[in-house]
Specification:
65% helix; two-stranded antiparallel sheet; 6% strand
């Protein structure tokens, strides 16, 4: 059912143990509140990651709303989900910018062109899963490989914090990190789930206060790294931006070498979508596995649509799963409402400039947590599936791939093309694992086995 929700009970209350299923709803005022809550839950990461990738956060917020509505239509309203900005592309995008001129309009177009192709590949993978069955995914990406790819994507971004964000304002980065620690752990409910967003807001405010109390951030020199004195917060662009207007859109530019750098992210997006569908099925007590392929294809189609106009890559959001688990409201009506609210935010350039003014030091304090959490999700996959690292077929390619990503190690392929960091590590993990399986004469172990 895409539209037409049945009212649950009296539309106001839930009895103990009851849930509002995807095809049900509570009263519309309550659903608007739940929709707004989903926007808040996704907001932190959805605008942080475009900032990290050098893309327009206003466009990303607007297209996340469009992507969410497209996703719900493709899965026929069976899988409630919000599609926010994916972190899986960050390493590849930064590598693209290093090759094609940094933070320029030309590089922006090349970045979104590469993301668009990756989204198209993801959509094709979703169609394959839909027609061939979800078992094909487990054969190509068993837990030992999926966990490694998730881990190297998170830990492979450590250099972004160390080399770019943290040095811009070390003390504010440290304070922001500690404030976020406390928020995430001390508050168990909804506040805890949006602790990263609140930590970022707190860091922004403290940066504004620090500018007035202590003046500019002093120069910082560490070897070849030189940071000039600078203000933490610059409101000049916010003051000149209109309150309402079209977001910053641009067409993609396609370069083969750039596409190769972001294709490894497809592996993670497949794993994220599979995990999301499984979680929804478990929470609602319904079998939504038949919609696994549709969910993957929908995420790919949404990424294609978003990047075609200059937006960010999309993925299903764990933050919103947390909101559903806390409220026991799984109604897709809330997600349609959230999508509409996000689209409305996209038409305020002033709001976009406010987001873009987030200090680099604050981003350092927040991203060090985000990247670490992504990396540890890989370890969680290994633990849950009892991967055996006494087996050299598991240990050797996985360990090598992770080190290549963390380095980040660079491998020159030709004069103007290289593989490095996350892209290089992912190729070594996936290719190396299956190569060693062939050499050892084994078949991949089933999901959940001791061998991994």
């Amino acid at each position: 059912m895409v539209f037409g929700w049945t009212k649950h009970g009296d539309g106001k209350h839930l009895a103990p143990g009851e849930v509002v299923r995807p095809d049900e709803r509570l009263s519309w005022p309550r659903m608007i509140g739940f929709g707004a809550q989903h926007v808040v839950a996704m907001f932190g990461a959805t605008f942080v990651f475009p900032l990290v990738m050098g893309l327009n956060p206003n466009t990303a917020i607007m297209m996340s709303g469009v992507a969410t509505i497209l996703f719900l239509l493709i899965v026929k309203g069976k899988v409630p989900s919000y599609l926010g900005t994916s972190a899986s592309f960050v390493g590849g995008v930064l590598a693209i910018r290093a090759l094609f001129g940094g933070d320029t309009a030309g590089a922006d177009a090349i970045v979104t062109g590469a993301i668009l192709v990756a989204g198209f590949v993801l959509a094709l993978c979703g169609l394959a899963v839909h027609f061939l069955g979800v078992g094909i995914i487990h054969k190509i990406f068993p837990p030992v490989v999926t966990g490694a790819v998730v881990m190297l994507i998170g830990f492979g971004l450590a250099y972004v914090v160390a080399d770019f964000y943290w040095p811009q304002d070390q003390w504010l980065a440290l304070i922001t990190m500690l404030v976020t620690f406390v928020l995430v752990v001390a508050f168990k409910g909804f506040i805890g789930r949006i602790g990263i967003l609140i930590g970022l807001i707190a860091g922004f405010f403290l940066s504004w206060v620090a500018d007035r109390l202590f003046g500019m951030v002093p120069a910082y020199v560490d070897g070849a790294l030189t940071i000039a004195p600078h203000w933490r917060v610059d409101f000049s662009k916010i003051e000149s931006a209109p309150l309402f207007g079209w977001p910053d859109l641009h067409a993609p530019d396609f370069r083969f070498s750039a596409v190769l750098l972001v294709l490894p992210a497809v592996i993670v997006l497949i794993a994220e979508n599979i995990g999301h569908v499984k979680a929804v099925g478990e929470m609602t007590g319904t079998d939504v596995d038949p919609y696994m392929g549709r969910a993957i294809a929908a995420d790919g189609a949404a990424t294609v649509l978003a990047s075609a106009v200059g937006g960010s890559p999309t993925t299903t959001y764990a933050e919103n799963i947390g909101v559903m688990a806390a409220t026991r409201v799984y109604s897709t009506a809330a997600y349609y409402i959230a999508g509409v609210i996000a689209i409305a935010f996209g038409f305020s350039p002033k709001f976009g400039e406010l987001v873009s003014a987030t200090p680099d030091g604050v981003l350092g304090g927040v991203t060090v947590i985000l990247y670490g959490m992504i990396g540890l999700l890989g370890a969680k996959i290994w633990v849950e599936n009892r991967v055996d690292f006494a087996d050299p077929v598991n240990m050797v390619p996985i360990g090598a791939g992770i080190i290549l990503a963390i380095g980040p190690v660079k491998q020159m392929i030709s004069g103007d093309f290289r593989l490095e960091g996350i892209a290089l590590g992912t190729i070594v993990v996936v290719g190396g694992y299956h190569l060693l399986r062939v050499i050892a004469g084994r078949r991949p172990a089933p999901v959940g086995s001791d061998a991994g």
